[in-house]
Amino acid sequence: MAFFDLFRSSGIDEGLRQFENTSGAALLDVRTPQEYAQGHLPGSRNIPLDEIGQAAEAVTDLNTPLFIYCHSGARSAQATAALRRMGFQHVTNIGGISAYRGKVEY
Q1: Residue 16: in which H helix or E strand, if any?
Q2: Sheet strands side by side (includes 66-70)
Q3: Which residues neighbour 90 within 8 Å (Cβ) at sequence distance 6 or greater?
């Protein structure tokens, strides 16, 4: 593995595949409710970044695998760090929906 491979993301498509293949996983969209309403990944739940502290109300088991995304990947990185500080054990930032080309729900 090259040094710069540490910084490369596998991409939202791969992250979505991982979510779909992980039993009991939750997919969280940390964009605003307005952004979420404009189109989101199928099966995702909207917990905006500024409300991430409430994630434990929506996902009560700290061992639940969480897959996090936003628009570009920046807010999902912040949310991933916050969720880990909250005690969630399996949190993956899958990046931004802006790079996604599949079907979305409204």
Answers
A1: helix 12-20
A2: 44-46, 26-29, 66-70, 91-96
A3: 63, 64, 65, 66
**Among this protein's residues, is 70 annotated catalytic?**
yes
* Residue that is written with structure tokens 């807010």 in the block: 75
Both tokens assigned to 67: 């897959």
Annotated catalytic residue, options 12, 28, 70, 94: 70
Provide the token pair at 12. 């939202």
CA distances from 89 to 8, 63, 72, 76, 77 (A): 22, 5, 23, 16, 15
Examine the pLDDT at 1 and tell me if it is beyond 70. no
Which residues does residue 70 pair with via DSSP β-bridges, in sequence order?
96
As given in the structure block, the two tokens for residue 27 are 């997919």
Structure-token pair, residue 87: 């005690």
Helices in 27-72 by DSSP H: which ranges?
A: 33-37, 55-58
pLDDT band at 32 (very low <50, low <70, confident <90, very high): very high
